[in-house]
Amino acid sequence: MEPVEGGMSAQDVTAFCAAMAARGIEIWLDGGWGVDALLGRQTRAHSDLDIVVQERDVAAVVTFLTQQGYRDLPRPDTRAWNFALGDDRGRIVDLHVIVLDDRGEGRYGPPEAGEGCYPAEALEGRGAVNGQAVRCTSAAFQIRSHSGYTLTEKDYRDVTALAKAFGLDLPAAFRDWTG
Prior knowledge:
Elements: H1 10-22, E1 27-30, H2 31-39, E2 49-54, H3 58-67, E3 71-72, E4 82-86, E5 92-100, E6 106-108, E7 117-118, E8 125-129, E9 132-136, H4 139-145, H5 153-166, H6 172-175
Parallel strand pairs: 2-5
Antiparallel strand pairs: 1-2, 3-4, 4-5, 5-6, 6-7, 8-9
């Protein structure tokens, strides 16, 4: 499958994951690439790579990306715990920063922000991109996190594919979705 112009290819994803592993940095794929990793195949082109990363590793990830030619991409929703970096080729890495507690739950942003958390079971997902094993957010978490915004065709396809592949219930918003 071809990447979107300027998007993240499967080769980009596996190279990034390998670079993080070589540095001892644990990441979880989230978003579209997380869905495709869970499904074990690329289902569509991806404009970016969403990752979940521990706060303690953010500086190392940003340093690595900066050395690869990435730079900050300010957006209206940029926060210390959710920001993106992109390069001149149009590749974007969107970081979702967590702090793991003693139960393995990932706090997402300061408690007063009300952003919630990545429950421990959300961080138990495993998948593959181009045959390379990767960590990713779980199918159940991916399905639950597709809410609270205007749904698109790709959301519908991602969520229905996960529900079918993992035998999970399809949320009402997707059962009734008309596009």
